[in-house]
């Protein structure tokens, strides 16, 4: 339910004398954010965007993350914290024993309201094994948002026969996320073989002239295959967020 639908429902309840005007006014005045001093936790994001606020763990102290998680927990929201180091998790887990740490993805999740898994899937495809940490960030994010995920790892162009062995599985996906470092050619190859939206993620994996992912990024931006959208270097989370929105469009159309 959106924020606008909430307000409309509240106004209808007042009109039908199901709630007092003073109580309705109090609900409307409830703060859409929780001011912690160092952070203002956005409590209305789910109503606006369909997904709760996500905690970016890098650059925050464990104590700050604990306080933000406590705010989200008090307001009964699902928690997803990205780029969380194992050291910080060790400090956090005593405060949140129900939280799950996904080590490869560097993601912490605590699910208050599990989402129904989509009938359609997101395929997460990597060029190499070294790209798996970025791929797992994408896969875990997508799963947290209720998507069925198919992982197809280490099928890069250096051994392109490996890709063809999984082509039917990739083609069956509603959205494809292709993750590649080095020269980033895999996105163009897959883009020419599928009829689904493709989100390309360049990674910082590669030798010197990879330039920390810039070479792969440029290759993907200049792809001759149509239908490719490119996110920032190593941004598995951003790719999964967009892929989830696309994948859930089918569910909306079904209703």
TrEMBL record:
GO terms for molecular function: hydrolase activity. Pfam families: AIRC. Residues 120-252 form the PurE domain. SMART domains: AIRC. Signal peptide: none annotated. InterPro entries: P2CMN_synthase_LarB, PurE_dom. One of its GO terms (biological process) is 'de novo' IMP biosynthetic process. This is AIR carboxylase family protein. It comes from Lacticaseibacillus saniviri JCM 17471 = DSM 24301.
């Amino acid at each position: 339910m959106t924020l606008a639908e909430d307000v409309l429902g509240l106004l209808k309840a007042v009109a039908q004398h199901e709630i007092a005007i003073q109580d309705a006014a109090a609900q409307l005045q409830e703060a859409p954010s929780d001011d912690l001093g160092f952070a203002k936790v956005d409590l209305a994001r789910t109503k606006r965007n369909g997904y709760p606020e996500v905690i970016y763990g890098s650059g925050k102290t464990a104590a700050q993350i604990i306080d933000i998680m406590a705010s989200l927990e008090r307001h009964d929201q699902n928690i997803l914290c990205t780029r969380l180091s194992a050291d910080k998790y060790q400090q956090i887990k005593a405060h949140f024993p129900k939280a799950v740490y996904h080590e490869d993805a560097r993601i912490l999740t605590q699910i208050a309201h599990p989402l129904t898994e989509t009938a359609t899937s997101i395929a997460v495809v990597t060029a190499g094994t070294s790209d798996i940490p970025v791929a797992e960030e994408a896969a875990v994010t997508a799963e947290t948002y209720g998507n069925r995920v198919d992982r197809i790892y280490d099928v890069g162009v250096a051994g392109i026969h490996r890709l063809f062995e999984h082509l039917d599985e990739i083609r069956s996906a509603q959205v494809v996320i292709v993750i590649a470092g080095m020269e980033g050619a895999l996105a163009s190859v897959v883009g020419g073989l599928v009829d689904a939206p493709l989100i390309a993620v360049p990674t910082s994996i590669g030798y010197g002239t990879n330039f920390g992912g810039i070479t792969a990024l440029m290759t993907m931006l200049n792809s001759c295959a149509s239908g490719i959208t490119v996110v920032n270097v190593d941004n598995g989370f951003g790719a999964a967020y967009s892929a989830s929105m696309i994948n859930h469009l089918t569910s909306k159309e079904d209703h």
